[in-house]
């Protein structure tokens, strides 16, 4: 296609006198900037002070909302449900946290936007593009422009805005600190203790009945829970995750570990069912070797030798529970585990 044909596709304009069509001289002409109109705050100091009070008020609102956010953790219990139109029944804690944090962040943003639109410099400038590596004179100009912008924004002169903005920005991160506290209840010594205690009977997990020594056959694997722990209790999963017990009956002469033999009853040994790697429940038992295997990552423990680790990523042996028989002939615990069950944690020593 010729250059003459290409010219026909360029923008054109109509000559009003002769009706002839001419090619547009500059299809990308700079339209320029519209006439500058000063804001009311630029010519009326009273209006500027009103805008200043609005911005400061928004920053103060953010501070109040942040305090309310933190107070919500104290005021509302985690299980409190309230009716709020039009949302319906919602958690009082979650609703108050979302509302107060949203107000705190919105107020800071709205205050900054209103400050920029009404009080900061309104001068319109156009500048030519330059290379990325600016020469020294350009860098000096940029720094000067920055200093001029700070001066024109009133940041140094309008102390009310500056101080309230500092307060709002300093307090909002406190909400994040409080959120870290809500990651869960403080563990205290809960990881070191279970429901097992002296005199608590061993309850068969399948029959929900107390266990007698004769109920445990040689080579069998039985799972037990502490007396008083029922599945309808609200903390059942939390407690069973620490207290789940694995019971095996060995021939006393096959028990290699001296303490294991002392803590057993007629060859019946009780170990934690919770793997010491990542806390999976152990359920696979090899009768001939007396080994138990964790199905998650194949950690293997020798129940005839203190449940020590013989294979896999687990870091330490399964804790053993000292057991005996009560006056009624049922197996019972003689105390709690002497070491924390499950995976290691940073405080464990």
UniProtKB/TrEMBL annotation:
The chain crosses the membrane at residues 54-75, 95-116, 160-180. It comes from the Bacteria. PROSITE patterns: RIESKE. CDD domains: Rieske (cd03467). Keywords: 2Fe-2S, Cell membrane, Disulfide bond, Electron transport, Iron, Iron-sulfur, Membrane, Metal-binding, Oxidoreductase, Respiratory chain, Transmembrane, Transmembrane helix, Transport. Residues 15-28 have a biased composition (Basic and acidic residues). InterPro entries: QcrA_N, Rieske_2Fe-2S, Rieske_2Fe-2S_sf, Rieske_Fe-S_prot. SUPFAM superfamilies: ISP domain. It is found in: Cell membrane. Residues 237-332 form the Rieske domain. Belongs to the Rieske iron-sulfur protein family. This is Cytochrome bc1 complex Rieske iron-sulfur subunit. It comes from Streptomyces noboritoensis. The lineage of its organism: Bacteria, Bacillati, Actinomycetota, Actinomycetes, Kitasatosporales.
């Amino acid at each position: 296609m010729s250059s003459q044909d290409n010219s026909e596709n360029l923008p054109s304009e109509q000559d009003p006198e002769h009706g002839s069509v001419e090619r547009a001289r500059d299809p990308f002409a700079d339209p320029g900037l519209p006439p500058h109109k000063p804001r009311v705050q630029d010519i009326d100091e009273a209006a500027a002070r009103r805008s200043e009070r609005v911005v400061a008020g928004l920053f103060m609102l953010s501070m109040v909302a942040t305090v309310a956010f933190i107070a919500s953790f104290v005021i509302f219990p985690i299980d409190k449900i309230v009716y709020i139109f039009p949302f319906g029944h919602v958690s009082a804690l979650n609703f108050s946290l979302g509302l107060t944090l949203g107000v705190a962040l919105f107020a800071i943003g709205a205050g900054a936007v209103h400050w920029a639109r009404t009080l900061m410099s309104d001068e319109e400038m156009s500048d030519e593009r330059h290379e990325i590596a600016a020469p020294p004179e350009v860098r000096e100009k940029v720094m000067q422009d920055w200093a001029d912008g700070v001066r024109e924004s009133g940041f140094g002169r309008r102390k009310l805005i500056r101080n309230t903005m500092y307060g709002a920005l300093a307090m909002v991160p406190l909400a994040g600190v409080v959120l870290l506290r809500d990651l869960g209840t403080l563990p205290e010594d809960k990881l070191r203790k279970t429901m097992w205690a002296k005199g608590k009977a061993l309850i068969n997990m399948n029959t929900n009945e107390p266990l007698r020594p004769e109920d445990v056959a040689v080579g069998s694997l039985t799972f037990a829970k502490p007396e008083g722990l029922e599945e309808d209790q609200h903390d059942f999963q939390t407690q069973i995750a620490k207290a789940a017990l694995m019971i095996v009956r060995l021939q006393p002469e096959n028990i290699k570990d001296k303490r294991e033999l002392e803590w057993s009853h007629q060859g019946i040994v009780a170990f934690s069912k919770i793997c010491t790697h990542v806390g999976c429940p152990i359920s696979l038992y090899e009768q001939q070797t007396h080994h138990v295997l964790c199905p998650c990552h194949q950690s293997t423990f020798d129940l005839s030798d203190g449940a020590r680790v013989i294979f896999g990523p687990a870091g330490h042996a399964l804790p053993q529970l000292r057991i005996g028989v009560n006056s009624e002939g049922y197996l019972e615990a003689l105390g709690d585990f002497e070491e924390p069950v499950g995976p290691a944690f940073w405080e464990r020593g």
